[in-house]
Design brief:
The chain is built from five helices and 13 strands. It is an alpha+beta fold and about 220 residues long. The strands form two sheets. Strands 1, 2, 3, 4, 5, 6, 7, 10, 11, 12 and 13 form an eleven-stranded mixed beta sheet that branches. The chain has a two-stranded antiparallel sheet with strand order 8-9.
Length: about 220
């Protein structure tokens, strides 16, 4: 197994750039800064994104999965169609392990637990998602790492990958993520200028070497 760990000090110099934390002939692992789109949005003002910034040095780069614009952390990208196909399959078949670090409002009563709540787009207020009985199944495991001054630091482990899943699930149990402009309100929303959600761990099977590779990227908050 290949194991990579990047520290907080590394991140301090990389919060406005897409930093490549691992590369080979087949794939890239990058640190996406908060506030940057994963792929281009609609309109000329939304062309700047992870993919567009990487294309100059990696013209064949292909998106495999996305992080919310407001979320920072690890993303994996493919450098050819075969690798893209296999990585996409691993994500689809839920073979990829993803962990996130978040700071949430309130001191969590339980040290660990799960949120199983189906999600659907709130069309009049898109891109907001809501918990709804007719939504798609969504499951998140969580572990409380620390409690301090009315907040909690948690590790989130999504089993499914629904849009805004972690943000809605935390809000649905009364612990919205700090700085969340869509799902938090009042002091929780104003507590941070950025969303305190970071993709900190990613484990996949390398499509070419078949070796398990895992990456840790410390949260910048």
């Amino acid at each position: 197994m290949m194991h990579f760990h990047y520290s907080h000090g590394y991140l301090q110099t990389a919060m406005t750039e897409v930093s490549v934390v691992y590369s080979d002939k087949h794939l890239l692992l990058v640190n996406k800064p908060e506030g940057l789109l994963s792929v281009p949005g609609r309109g000329p003002d939304k062309k700047d994104c992870v993919v567009s910034r990487l294309q100059a040095d990696y013209p064949t780069v292909r998106i495999v999965h996305r992080l919310d614009c407001a979320t920072s952390g690890l993303m994996i990208l493919a450098l050819n169609s075969e690798v893209h196909r296999e990585l996409s399959r691993q994500f689809h078949d839920r073979e990829v392990q993803k962990h996130y670090i978040a700071c949430v409002a309130g001191e969590m009563a339980s040290s660990s637990g799960s949120v199983s709540a189906p999600l659907i787009c709130d069309w009049p207020n898109r891109p907001r998602q809501i918990v709804h009985s007719e939504g798609k199944p969504a499951l998140t495991h969580y572990e409380c790492l620390a409690r301090e001054a009315g907040t909690s630091r948690v590790e989130l482990k999504p089993v499914t990958g629904r849009s805004h899943q972690l943000r809605v699930h935390m809000q649905s149990i009364g612990h919205p993520i700090l700085g969340d402009q869509l799902y938090a309100s009042g002091p929780a929303r104003e507590a941070s200028q950025r969303l305190l959600l970071h993709a900190s761990y990613l484990a996949v099977r390398h499509p070419v070497t078949n070796q398990q590779i895992e990456f840790y990227l410390d949260a910048p908050f």
